[in-house]
Amino acid sequence: LILTFSFSHSLILILILTHSLSYIAYFCPYSLFRMEAVTFKNVADSAVTTIAIAAIVFGGVVPFVFQYFNMKKTKSSHGFSTKVILTLLTGYILRVFFWVGHPFETPLLLQALVMIVWLLFMQYVCLSLDDAPKRAFHGFFDTNHFWQWSHFNDYLYVVTIFIVVMGTLTYLFQNSSIFVEGLGTASLLLEALLGVPQFFRNWKSKSTTGMSFTMVLAWFAGDGFKISYFILRKAPTQFFVCGTLQLCMDVALLIQVYVFKGQKRHTLRKKELIENV
């Protein structure tokens, strides 16, 4: 009797639950049965957004990680232009002050702050591996040896002065749209032209030895991703235009790798032929 009673009650409860669920599903089709799908979609969207933000914030560091390991392997910074560091440092510092006058995506601001710290670290590494003659800082007008000093404190001193000057100007002219937009354009143009010092160094030496090919490939991939991000997130126009210029510069560096590597093979082959004769 007890088993029959329990079974009958269980059957009634199951029927009631089934009927209730079908009733809810009929009148609220989005409330219960689609909850799992909606939750999964939200989680997936959140995951993709988080990955994209992390890629933007830390993606700029990745190419220089390859260059760092390349320099540590060869125990030399020869072939890598520290003017790239100067160009990018200036651009990212200006971007921070651009954000003060024209707030944009927070990940792009965080990217600038992360890159400033990493670029100073790269400069320190270059100094530790550099065997050039010792040079002291003799002022901003010593153009022959600007950004070629031997003491890391000199670089910190110059960067600090630049930050103070730009901070003061931004505070005074933050309500001027011409000044603020000019900051944005200058910062992104400098970032877009980061490969120019390296390009001319390679052109002058007719070689890409010392420059990490993986670093340039990472620049190319990262810049392509950034342009997509700028379009999707509707960032200020300067970001898209300068990102496109940066991508073109990456292509120019990749062409240099192909051309100079071919010239190097030709020179070695010619040398071998002369030696054999």
How would you describe what is shown here?
By secondary structure, the protein is mostly helical. It contains 10 helices and no strands. The chain has helices spanning 2-27, 35-59, 61-74, 83-101, 106-129, 152-173, 177-192, 195-205, 213-233, 237-276. Helix 3 packs parallel to helix 5, helix 8 packs parallel to helix 10 and helix 9 (213-233) packs antiparallel against helix 10. The N and C termini lie far apart (111 Å).
Q: What string gives the helices and strands in order?
A: HHHHHHHHHH
Helix fraction by DSSP (H/I, runs of at least 4): over 70%
SS-based class: mainly alpha
Net shape: globular
> What is the typical, i.e. mean, pLDDT?
75
Number of strands: 0
Counted by DSSP, the helix tally is 10
Largest sheet: none
Query: What percent strand?
Result: under 5%
The whole-angstrom Rg is 29 Å
Low-confidence spans: 1-36, 265-277
Distance between the termini: 111 Å
What are the salient characteristics of this protein?
mainly alpha; disordered N terminus; disordered C terminus; globular; 277 residues; 79% helix
Q: What's the short version?
A:
By secondary structure, the chain is mainly alpha-helical. The protein has 10 helices and no strands. The chain is globular and about 55 Å long.
Helix and strand arrangement:
Blueprint: H1 2-27, H2 35-59, H3 61-74, H4 83-101, H5 106-129, H6 152-173, H7 177-192, H8 195-205, H9 213-233, H10 237-276
Helix pairs in contact: 2-5, 3-5, 3-9, 4-5, 4-6, 4-7, 7-10, 8-10, 9-10
